[in-house]
Design a protein that fits this description.
Layout (H helix, E strand, L loop, with lengths): L2 H5 L5 H9 E5 L2 E5 L2 E4 L4 H10 L9 E4 L13 H16 L3 E3 L9 H7 L8 E4 L13 E4 L2 H10 L1 E4 L4 E7 L8 H12 L8 E5 L1 H4 L3 H10 L7 E3 L4 H7 L8 H12 L11 E6 L6 E3 L7 E3 L10 H7 L14 E4 L1 H4 L2 H11 L8 E3 L4 H10 L1 H8 L2 E2 L20 E4 L14 E4 L2 H10 L19
Parallel strand pairs: 3-4, 3-6, 4-5, 6-7, 9-10, 9-12, 10-11, 15-16, 15-18, 16-17, 18-19
Antiparallel strand pairs: 1-2, 2-8, 13-14
Length: about 475
């Protein structure tokens, strides 16, 4: 039992889930049972270890694979490497009896989008994947976090994981986000305040009226970006919004099992007086559209400000910008809408609302988060809005977020992107990335430079979002 638990029986959601999944404790480390294990193409190292040891997967029915990182958004950009990695995942999952969503499977998409769509990400579960943005699944009240290659192999072989208890940080967001601001802006605003090391090693548990008002898709964006604060995990306690989104999903409980599950899930709400290792409170009404200017998510500022005078000189040189330059007006060479951060249907709808009846002046690539989202976007006419605006409507996958699938930004080019990381070379060697919301990317693609998307969208209430 952790020191915090020993001092108080009033537990937060993260602590409740950990307590329920602890198999044993030894030397200050807990052996945690894992409910769901998600795999992508990068899992081949773990499969190789299993083969070398002559081992099988302990519980293959709790393990799910999907091709996403190496799937090109266009067949024209496919290459031998992408084909080999996709085939390797298909062979490994087939040989070890794992259900995997490969090319042509209607369930396929980015792992952190496709798995929730199937109802595999449930409140109170522990979820791991060999990807740092596994925290996305915390939007459903799951304790979800990324693991390394050796840990992937351990979970495959044992369905458990040795882990030192993460300290828990509560971030409470009061009030409501204003019209024209998004969950992406909220995440970047938090990083602007605490930096990329402000939540290092913590599991972040979100609270407050502004969080409760977020849709599931927005909560997924926020939990996804929690990793960029230095955290290991991000979580929103489950509520009626969670249950409404999950009900009827293929792998969610059904009938009487659903009713029983909801009762259990409601008990995951934090106890009054729960104790946390760190706390932060913000007012959502202070949040405005945010844009990164440098080579770290903490190199970020409100759209109506300028690059700080004390900005990191190396970052300025790499990005080809100067301190004191207004963010609004920085030219871009291309734009990208997609990724596990902002490739969901609500993201595409928001961007399409900006683009409707307008034309882009810089190349815009749109990659839906899943094949299911792509189908829905086609049915709703959203895909046609993107095409009419002059954007490229690509296949679902990680696409330009990681540049390992044939999609890349050329050296020296500047990209307005909805992805989660603006590290050097993240979108390609020498690529310069500016992170922002889908609406902001759409506006930049229309203007040819970074601009405030609120000038393209009118909000009748002029204040809080409806």
């Amino acid at each position: 039992m952790s020191d915090r638990t020993a001092k108080s029986k009033q537990l937060g959601t993260v602590e409740k889930i950990r307590e329920a999944h602890r198999v044993l404790s030894q030397g200050g480390t807990d052996l945690i049972y894992i409910d769901r294990h998600f795999l992508h193409e990068g899992s081949h190292h773990a499969f190789a270890r299993l083969r070398e040891a002559g081992r099988h997967i302990r519980q293959p029915e709790l393990t799910f694979g999907v091709a996403d990182h190496y799937v090109p958004s266009s067949p024209d950009r496919a290459n031998d490497v992408t084909a080999t990695m996709i085939e390797r995942l298909a062979n490994n999952t087939r040989d070890f009896g794992v259900d995997s969503f490969g090319i042509g499977d209607p369930r396929r998409g980015i792992v952190h989008v496709a798995m929730p769509e199937q109802g595999l990400s449930l409140p109170g579960t522990t979820i791991v994947c060999g990807d740092s943005h596994t925290a996305t699944h915390g939007a459903f009240g799951a304790f979800a976090f990324g693991v390394g290659a050796s840990e992937v192999a351990h979970v495959l072989a044992t369905q458990t994981l040795w882990q030192t208890a993460m300290p828990v940080m509560r971030i409470k967001v009061d009030g409501r986000l204003r019209a024209g601001t998004t969950a992406k802006d909220l995440a970047l605003a938090i990083i602007w305040r605490i930096g990329t090391g402000g939540a290092t090693g913590h599991a972040v548990e979100y609270a407050g009226d502004a969080i409760a008002a977020l849709s599931i898709e927005e909560r997924m964006t926020l939990c996804n970006m929690t990793i960029e604060m230095g955290a290991r995990s991000g979580l929103v306690p489950p509520d009626e919004t969670t249950f409404a989104w999950l009900k009827g999903r293929p792998r969610a409980p059904q009938g009487a099992s659903w009713d029983a599950a909801v009762v259990e899930w409601l008990a995951l709400q934090p106890d009054p007086g729960a104790v946390y290792d760190a706390e932060l409170t913000l007012d959502a009404s202070d949040v405005v559209p945010m844009v990164t200017w440098g080579t770290s998510p903490e190199h970020v500022a409100p759209i109506d400000t300028a690059i700080p005078e004390n900005a990191d000189k190396d970052a300025l040189e790499y990005m080809g910008v100067t301190a004191g330059t207004p963010l609004s007006g920085i030219s871009i060479d291309r734009a990208f809408i997609g990724s596990c951060t902002n490739g969901r249907l609500s993201d595409l709808r928001a961007a399409a609302n900006i683009l409707r009846g307008r034309k882009v002046v810089t190349p815009l690539l749109v990659s839906p988060g899943s094949d299911n989202i792509a189908r829905q976007a086609e049915e709703e006419g959203i895909a046609d809005i993107f095409r009419a605006a002059g954007a490229e409507w690509g296949l679902s996958g990680c696409s330009l977020c990681v540049s390992m699938n044939g999609d890349a930004v050329a050296s020296g080019e500047r990209c307005a992107s909805t992805s989660n990381r603006n590290f050097r070379g993240r979108q390609g060697p020498g690529a310069r990335t500016h992170l922002m919301s889908p609406e902001m990317v759409a506006a930049a693609a229309i203007a040819g430079h970074i601009t405030d998307a609120r000038r393209f969208a009118q909000h009748s209430n002029g204040g809080e979002r409806t």
